[in-house]
Design brief:
Chain lengths: 206, 206
DNA sequence: ATAAATAGTGAACCATCATTCAGTTCTTCT
DNA sequence: AGAAGAACTGAATGATGGTTCACTATTTAT
């Protein structure tokens, strides 16, 4: 059974999360979180050292949740290139389905301290893409390249391409077209399939 | 001759710009700008309605300056694909040569109101890339695609790939490799050169 | 030279919120 | 029940830093 302490923590985090998801970051002051959670302002500081810590945890858990979905997509059967496509589709679909939250997590202007956090939470996405690209390279599906730089560019590109649409109301047909454009863009960006080595060496795994 | 009024404006903007370029946005308070410009805090409000307006102008002029350099690169002779490559090289070289400023303009966490500005000032880059891509499409060099989405993804990708290096001290050899990686990445992302149309239609210009 | 207008000063002000803490209510244990 | 402690309250506090404004200095016009 969940301890009272943990229940309160979760309630506060949930309130913060709901506020972000409904109205964006700008609507979330500590008193607002308290009101939504049905507790006093002061109590929040019994559970979190500061607002920044609270948001750090909020961002972390939201990011982990998204990352898990993307990792699941990455585990689908298929070539590395195909799986990269699945991950992008998953990421983009989920972002477009929860626009306000995605906007807040990815791009909404926030106070300085929290912005730093946000930058940090892009790293897991970069790592996921970098790992898939490296796999593709080792399998001979993708030409050798600096997977860290390319992964960063992909994440930045996907987010930037989504930011405009994220802040506008949904337009049904366009969504699939947008995602398709982004997926093709990334697929192309990985370059063409390399010729098998003249030495006939088999692709290797580390 | 520059009017006294314009001279003062320019002096204040210059002071702000130098502070940003030397120490990043976090070092720039209104009193700090005043001190650097050798004027009083209050005077700044005779020339600018608010700090946000001052920075809006600062960002605008800095962005215009950069955009001009990129547009010059885009006017070099060459195919659309080649010229896109020149623009990326120009942009990246200049950013890496003035790291602190570039970091402040592109990614440093800033207060909410100013962040909104920053988002706006990415649009000119998107437009420049979009125009070049469209040219390439019309010339049959690039397969038809949504140039606005692709341009956004390129800009986002270039910036994201630079952000890490921008916040670290220069490492000489790496810089060219990094830029080369980004350029190839974008070149690939445009897709392969399309087959000439079966109907033998000539590429068209609007 | 004197007045009117304009430019400039900087200490005080204020708005915003995160944060605190003295006091109260609720639990738990004997 | 009663005491000890933990949980909780919310109005007051405080830090930051942008903004104002009553006042002084300088320039321009008569």
């Amino acid at each position: 059974m969940e301890s009272r302490l943990a229940e309160r923590r979760a309630r506060i985090l949930g309130a913060a999360r709901n506020l972000v998801a409904e109205a964006g970051y700008s609507a979330v002051s500590v008193p607002a979180i308290a009101k939504r959670a049905g507790v006093s302002t002061g109590l929040i500081y019994n559970y979190f050292d500061s607002k920044a810590v609270l948001f750090d945890e909020l961002f972390r858990s939201a990011t982990e949740h998204e990352i898990e979905a993307c990792e699941a997509a990455a585990r689908q059967p298929g070539s590395a290139r195909e799986r990269i496509g699945y991950v992008i589709e998953t990421f983009a679909h989920r972002a477009l389905a929860a626009r306000q939250l995605a906007w807040a997590l990815l791009a909404e202007p926030v106070e300085t301290e929290i912005e730093q956090d946000r930058l940090r939470f892009r790293a897991p996405y970069r790592r996921l893409f970098a790992a898939l690209i490296r796999e593709g390279i080792n399998d001979g599906e993708i030409a050798d390249q600096d997977e860290d730089v390319v992964a960063a560019a992909m994440v930045g590109g996907i987010v930037e391409a989504l930011i405009g649409p994220l802040s506008e109301p949904p337009e049904v047909g366009d969504e699939d077209r947008l995602i398709h454009t982004i997926v093709s863009y990334c697929a192309n960006a990985l370059g063409s399939i390399p010729e098998p080595s003249e030495l006939g060496m088999a692709p290797y795994h580390d």
